[in-house]
Automatic annotation (TrEMBL):
SUPFAM superfamilies: P-loop containing nucleoside triphosphate hydrolases. This is ParA family protein. It comes from Pilimelia columellifera subsp. columellifera. Residues 53-64 have a biased composition (Low complexity). Signal peptide: none annotated. The lineage of its organism: Bacteria, Bacillati, Actinomycetota, Actinomycetes, Micromonosporales. Transmembrane segments: none annotated. Residues 123-298 form the AAA domain. Residues 1-64 are annotated as: Disordered.
Length: 378
């Protein structure tokens, strides 16, 4: 990366040894890239390659590699025996995000030999908690990137009308983009709306647009309304190791669709005072779905998020959760880390934005635990 390509970072709490890999321009609060139309960089922001919205996003076509036009897919060295795709441009150079992704893997596993084995069968995990802002989307995005960077084939389904997972993975999701609404309500096959994620070759994302806001009501009158997502996933013609579903902060029909489609629920719990409030309601709903619609459903994983080591409260919440849920709770705990919250504004996960930050290494460890547990349970 050229010196001029670096985006200055504010002083923060990160323990990172290296500068954040901010490859794209920072977006403003409305998701727009400042001066995006002006490639001269006259807005004062370094003139760096910015992932551009793709056109003709593969409607009816096979999925394309997540690389700029004229890129070719190649297979490179293996990590822990799992071969990973990467992409090169015609000039023989990797796209910037792919370079950052490779750099991230080197930060986590300087010696190679990482253990993030692929499961023997597809794992469908719904990331759910009807409490808002507990880290569902952040968890979905970062686990997906970590797993994909280690050879797992992953698809993220954004099931939240807010479209935050789509934003976090820098996938176009403006009005008019075919999205999960088209799948649930209009019977469009999932493969026609799944988009490649720039720089992360094994990762796809099914975006959510604002259209999805109406789905909760429209689903009521649709045939087999609770099974729409299950059927769409079953009809997907490609193999995936992980399907990660980012649920909205509610227990409506969208979340029910996610719970019916999944075998596993991952509940992120924020290490805050009100964290456990409402959890019983979520567990009751999961039990109802299990009893009536999906006997295979299980709360397999609890992840503690936004842990602030300076507070005794966080410690107390952790103890409560571990006492209650036992070994469903991952050993890895995600700290409150400013890099994690900065990353989406650069159109990246923290995994590539600042791979050495405490946020990224914790999500990396959580992904590794999830992968190892999955293999053990097979
Ligand atoms: N570990 C972390 N450290 C610092 N900030 C975080 C961390 N995890 C999440 N955040 C920030 O907290 C906010 C809420 O996170 P996120 O959007 O992932 O929660 P959510 O449960 O998906 O929210 P919603 O219920 O609205 O869908 C976001 O601004 C995110 O950037
Ligand atoms: Mg969310």
């Amino acid at each position: 990366m050229h010196e001029s390509d670096k985006v200055s970072k504010p002083n923060g709490e990160s323990l990172s040894a290296t500068a954040p890999a901010a490859t794209g321009r920072r977006r403003n609060a409305w998701g727009a890239t400042p001066g995006a139309a002006n490639s001269s960089g006259a807005d004062g922001v370094a003139d760096v390659p910015v992932p551009q919205p793709r056109t003709g996003r593969g409607l009816g076509l096979p999925l394309r590699p997540a690389a700029p036009a004229k890129a070719t897919a190649t297979v490179v060295a293996t990590d822990g025996g799992v071969s990973r795709e990467t992409t090169t441009t015609e000039a023989g150079q990797e796209p910037p995000l792919a370079m950052e992704a490779r750099r991230a893997v080197q930060v986590w596993n300087p010696g190679g030999g990482v253990e993030m084995p692929r499961p023997t069968r597809r794992r469908v995990m719904s990331v759910a908690n009807q409490k808002g802002g507990v880290g569902k989307t952040t968890t979905t995005v970062n686990l997906a990137v970590a797993l994909a960077l280690h050879g797992n084939r992953v698809i993220v389904i954004d099931l939240d009308p807010q479209g935050n997972a789509s934003t976090g993975l820098n996938v176009p999701h403006h009005a008019g983009v075919p999205d999960i609404y088209s799948v649930l309500i209009e019977n469009v096959p999932l493969i026609e709306v799944a988009q490649a994620v720039d720089g992360i070759p094994n990762l796809r994302c099914v975006p959510a647009t604002i259209d999805l806001a109406g789905a909760e009501i429209e689903l009521v009158s649709v045939v087999a309304r609770e099974q729409r997502l299950t059927r769409a996933i079953a009809a997907y013609p490609e193999e995936f190791d992980y399907v990660l579903i980012d649920c909205p902060p509610s227990l409506g029909l969208l979340t029910v669709n996610a719970l019916v489609a999944a075998e596993e629920v991952l509940i992120p719990i924020q290490c805050e005072y009100y964290a456990l409030e409402g959890l019983n309601q979520l567990l009751n709903n999961i039990n109802l779905v299990k009893a009536h619609l999906n006997p295979h459903l299980d709360v397999s994983t609890i992840l503690l998020t936004m842990y602030d080591r300076r507070t005794r409260l966080a410690d107390a919440v952790e103890q409560d959760v571990r006492n209650h849920f036992g070994d469903k709770v991952l050993r890895s705990v995600i700290p409150r880390n400013v890099r994690v919250s900065e990353a989406p504004s650069y159109g990246q996960s923290v995994m590539t934005y600042d791979p050495a930050s405490r946020g990224a290494t914790s999500y990396y460890e959580a992904a590794q635990e999830i992968a190892l547990r999955g293999v053990k349970n097979d």
